[in-house]
Design brief:
Chain A: Heterodimer of an alpha and a beta chain. Chain A: It is a peripheral membrane protein. The complex is a heterodimer of chains A (673) and B (292). Chain A has 673 residues and is α/β, with parallel strands linked by helices. Chain A is built from 27 helices and 13 strands. The longest helix of chain A has 25 residues. With 292 residues, chain B is α/β, with parallel strands linked by helices. Chain B has one domain: 3-Layer(aba) Sandwich (Rossmann fold), CATH 3.40.50.300. In chain B, the strands form two sheets. Chain B has a six-stranded mixed beta sheet, with helices on both faces. In chain B, strands 7-8 form a two-stranded antiparallel ribbon. In chain B, a hairpin with a 5-residue loop joins strand 7 and strand 8. The chains are: A alpha/beta (673), B alpha/beta (292). Chains A and B meet through strand 1, strand 2, helix 1, helix 19 and strand 13 of A and helix 3, strand 2, helix 5 and helix 6 of B. The structure holds guanosine-5'-triphosphate and magnesium ion (MG). The site of magnesium ion (MG) has 5 residues of chain B, from helix 3.
């Protein structure tokens, strides 16, 4: 069963909601944060974007009406597998936008009178809720499919929604005519459909007894059995039972629809006749009870007319779902309205393009977006990231109207700038100095540990020295750890850096720096741990009782596809447990920095097997050699896009002082130039 | 033709009356056009107030409360939202101060509220609407007084507040060099006072001031971010313009910002009450009324 359904605007206002069980607000909030804002959507095995999101014990599915800025979210427990939710979302979206679209388009709308939507939603749920999970129902429904004649079986698979396998038995019984009528219009199966109808759904026929017997255990089938029980043995008396009551309401409503159908379509009489004949006296009595029931309860104000509305709704929902299914298959069915017509429309299109106020279609966007993508590729943005960015811009702009006096190109540029800004801006800004200060000050002071990782030759040691210099400038005491116990010369290289830096700091009278090394061949993780212990050493020191404030660990460069060396990073991460892990990557064109970043990030799992830093692995990138690439700073985007890890520093030169924070506006400007 | 020709003849004839009529028309036309355009322009521009603050502070809730009278349930915002609201009769607009209490001839003034998303990645929306010469009457910085009791919450709030104030300060210093600048009023709306875990207004103010001072200090020591690659950093001048408040001062007080035309007031309240209780927002309405 659904736990909640919410309709909210992109500005965060809940326009309408229905909750069946209390769902903490944080669940939907994190959907918005993770999926809509940070675009960190879980990928499934095929690398396809998933359309559901899991948080705590809940699964969330959503759909959005971009042009109106409305998002539809369904929340249910992950234990269930509610496949009908997709249909519910589609239907709710179509109906809600139809009812409230015009109002929503107005400026300054912060509230809608969505009271009338309650009834619509209830009706939708009643119609679409197959009550069971898809997997179970598929197993369950083997029975009925065997029993039904071929044409009906075909319709069942075609219109999976309208033919909810076993559960609330009366519902399919009365829904069937609607399906068959539609099929008659479509001309797929005309005369065969009405006949099998009773066979599949008739609760009193022997066939459906088999059906029930065949259904497996589980809530749904239990309910269906109960429903059936109500219908066959004690229909009139059990009206007070809630689940049965629910079913009956559907039944009554549907009966009205039959009348209407009878008027509308010939050949339907057959069905009507049949049901009338088959109606036992018991059911007759039940119908009377139902009418009272309906009048007394929710239906209250919605008398005769209201029921017709609901009937229309049923047809409409079928149409909506059918069309949404069709949309998936063929994409563009462009009708050409003659040569003259197309010429004029193209002219006005051109005019609109300049003046603005044009509603953007897929055709309009394809070419400029392709240009934009090429532009990004020229800026050294990875193809994958460029494609994704363009897709998000397309989704953002499709069916939107361009502003007055704005061309499509500039609209796209603006949207792309926004997308780039969003991707590059870190969710929470890194203030290293503050972090260090907080960590080393009471109540429980300890040294702040930073480690630097990366492939061979990207400038790990250089950037480590730059960070050390920056920290020294701020009066911190820094211990540099030679964690590269592998490549010969690595320790010596660091020693040179440390000597330079300590000379500099002595001259400028700032912090102090020292090298911690255990030679070659030792396990890096152990060396790192020892270094931290050494830095924490309290013997003979003043101040906060530690020898050093910050421990900077250099690590061996490793090829990101060298699994043996890479996996040792996991142990390193767990043993040294750094506060921050930064990865150094190059801004240079043609490096496979994205693959590197991915492979490094996935090594940093904690002991519970969860990725560090909220599931992204590392805390930041240092992009080196930015001074050599000019405008082609696309690597920044590719790396952030691939991993969700922010860029924190840029290396911009050969000097110790050549380290910069990332200015997002600057980077976006360069990329869009 | 027959009817219009005598008129034309008259209009082009050198009689006094023709000259007078032409004169009147030529003098009145610009005035009429101007007044027409002017009225159209002023009718649209409502006094605007910007809602700003970290995520979850209650900006959107506040907006819906002010616009509709009751707060709607909300989730994290992704986009800005505008709404028009009317000053409640309990709050007097500054222009109406000398009006008699019993004078009901006059409608309460309308105003425009602009809500911005507070998520870290989306703050540029808010900061962007600050920089151009938007005719903002005031800025409402919403603070979650329960969240600021934790170190992380306090830091986040103070960092955002610091950035916003710095933008305002820069805007002021820039406009001072070009033309006469107007100050801007800032309300620090200490929200969620109904919560058990919330801090009292005075304490929130004090903590924010201290924390902003700390943020300012580390920002000044942090790495340069502005210049990016290959640009020369022009040392001192840059430092000074990136320093919030009096350059080099140790303490930070909201009062210091008055020098830069930013008047800060801290007022407590809550959008929602416990259970059925209504929120307490009179103080904020009062501030809005004063700054209309
Ligand atoms: N107890 C209490 N809760 C409040 C109050 N004001 C807001 N809230 C709750 O705080 C939560 C966040 O409020 P929002 O208005 O969505 O926050 P926001 O500032 O718009 O957040 P973003 O849109 O993410 O920037 C909501 O669940 C509100 O119900 C208040 O005065 N008291
Ligand atoms: Mg909001």
């Amino acid at each position: 069963m659904l736990d909640a359904f919410e309709i909210l605007t992109t500005s965060g206002i809940v326009l309408w909601r229905r909750s069946y069980a209390p769902v903490p607000s944080s669940v939907v909030n994190s959907l918005v944060g993770d999926v809509f804002i940070e675009d960190r959507r879980p990928k499934d095995a095929q690398g396809q974007q998933q359309t559901s999101y899991k948080k705590d014990k809940y699964t969330l599915k959503w759909t959005s009406a971009k042009d109106l800025g409305v998002v539809f979210v369904a929340v249910y427990q992950s234990l269930l597998h509610l496949s009908w939710v997709d249909n519910l979302l589609t239907a709710v979206k179509a109906l809600f936008t139809k009812d409230y679209g015009i109002e929503l388009k107005k400026a300054h709308v912060t509230k809608l009178n969505t009271q009338p939507f309650d009834a619509t939603f209830d009706a939708l749920v009643r119609k679409l809720d197959t009550g069971s999970t898809r997997r179970q129902s598929e197993a369950d429904s083997e029975g009925p499919i065997e029993l039904t004649p071929p044409s009906s079986a075909a319709s069942a698979s075609e219109e999976a929604v309208d033919e909810p396998p076993p559960p609330p038995i009366p519902a399919p019984q009365f829904k069937k005519p609607a399906v068959s009528r539609k099929e008659q219009f479509e001309g797929t199966s005309t005369d065969a459909t009405p006949v099998p109808t009773p066979d599949t759904s008739r609760p009193s026929t022997p066939a459906s007894h088999i059906l029930t017997a065949k259904s497996g255990p589980g809530k749904a089938s239990r309910r269906s059995r109960k429903a059936q029980h109500t219908l066959t043995s004690a229909p009139a008396s059990s009206g007070d039972e809630s689940s049965a009551g629910r079913n009956k309401k559907t039944a009554t409503k549907a009966k009205r629809r039959w009348d209407a159908d009878g008027f509308a379509v010939e050949g339907e009489d057959e069905v009507l006749d049949y049901s009338a004949a088959a109606d036992s006296q018991q059911e007759q009595g039940e119908r009377e009870v139902d009418v009272e029931d309906v009048n007394a309860s929710q239906m209250g104000s919605r008398t005769g007319k209201g029921q017709f509305v609901l009937k229309d709704l049923d047809d409409e929902v079928d149409a909506i779902l059918a069309s949404s299914k069709q949309q998936v298959k063929p994409d563009s069915t462009e009708g050409d309205a003659g040569l003259l017509g197309s010429a004029t429309s193209r002219l006005t299109g051109l005019f609109r393009n300049v003046v603005g106020g044009k509603t953007l279609t897929k055709q309009d966007l394809i070419q400029p977006l392709q240009q934009m993508q090429n532009h990004l590729l020229e800026k050294n943005v990875a193809r994958e990231a460029a494609a994704r960015l363009c897709a998000s811009v397309e989704a953002d702009l499709l069916n939107q109207r361009t502003a007055n006096f704005t061309s499509i190109d500039s609209t796209i540029r603006e949207s792309m700038s926004k997308a780039l800004t969003r991707i590059l801006t870190p969710t929470s800004s890194l203030d290293l100095l503050r972090d260090v200060t907080t960590t080393i000050s009471p109540p429980n002071p300890r040294p702040y540990v930073i480690s630097i990782v990366g492939v061979n030759g990207v400038g790990k040691s250089t950037n480590l020295s730059k960070i050390a210099y920056f920290l020294l400038q701020n009066q911190f005491r820094v211990l540099v750890v030679a964690g590269d116990t592998f490549r010969s010369g690595a320790v010596e290289q660091l020693r040179v850096h440390v000597r330079n830096l300590s000379e500099l700091s002595r001259r400028e009278d700032v912090g102090k720096i020292e090298l911690f090394e255990k030679g070659y061949g030792k396990d890096a993780a152990t060396v790192a741990r020892d270094a931290v212990t050494y830095a924490t050493n309290t013997a003979g020191t003043e101040g906060n009782g530690m020898l050093f404030d910050v421990v900077l660990i250099d690590t061996a460069g490793r090829r990101h596809n060298d699994t043996r060396l890479m996996s040792s990073l996991t142990k390193f991460g767990q043993l040294a447990n750094p506060d921050k892990i930064f990865m150094v990557g190059e801004a240079l064109v043609g490096t496979d920095s994205v693959a590197q970043a991915r492979n490094f990030a996935k090594e940093f799992v904690d002991t519970k097997g969860k990725l560090r830093n909220n599931g992204v692995g590392m805390d930041g990138f240092i992009i080196s050699k930015c001074d050599t690439v000019g405008d082609m700073v696309g690597t920044l985007v590719s790396m952030v896009h691939a991993t969700g890890i922010p860029v924190v520093f840029l290396g911009v030169g050969q000097h110790y002082g050549d380290l910069r924070g990332l200015n997002v506006g600057w980077a976006v400007d360069k990329l869009m130039k | 033709m027959a009817t219009s020709s005598p008129w034309l003849t008259w209009a082009f004839s050198p009689t006094i009356s023709a000259i007078l009529v032409t004169l009147v028309i030529s003098l009145l036309l610009p005035v009429l056009v101007h007044s027409y355009l002017y009225r159209k322009a002023t009718a649209q521009a409502l006094p605007a107030f910007l809602l700003i603050g970290p995520s979850g502070a209650g900006k959107t809730s506040l907006l819906t409360l002010f616009a509709n009278g009751t707060p709607s349930p909300t989730h994290t915002s992704q986009e800005t939202q505008t709404a028009t609201c009317q000053l409640p009769s309990s709050a007097l607009a500054s222009t109406d101060r000398y009006r008699s209490v019993n004078d009901h001839t006059h409608d309460q003034p309308q105003l425009l509220l602009i809500d911005t998303p507070g998520h870290g990645k989306l703050r540029h929306h808010a900061l962007a609407s600050l920089t151009p010469a938007t005719a903002l009457k005031g800025l409402i910085f919403v603070v979650d007084s329960a969240a600021v009791s934790s170190a992380a919450g306090l830091t986040e709030t103070a960092e955002y507040l610091h950035d916003v104030l710095l933008v305002l300060q820069k805007k002021h210093t820039q406009s001072r060099t070009s033309k006469g600048s107007q100050g801007i009023a800032v309300l620090v709306a200490v929200n969620k006072q109904d919560l058990f875990t919330s801090l009292p207004v005075g304490l929130v103010r004090q903590r924010l001031e201290e924390e902003v001072a700390r943020v300012r200090l580390t920002r000044s020591k942090g790495l340069l971010v502005d210049s990016g690659v290959g640009l020369t950093d022009d040392g001192e001048a840059d430092d000074e313009s990136n320093w919030l408040g009096q350059y080099g001062s140790k303490e930070f007080k909201f009062g210091h910002m008055e020098e830069y035309g930013v008047e800060i007031e801290v007022v407590g309240g809550n959008v929602k009450g416990e259970g059925e209780e209504k929120g307490r927002v009179d103080g904020w309405w009062g501030w809005i009324g004063e700054n209309l």
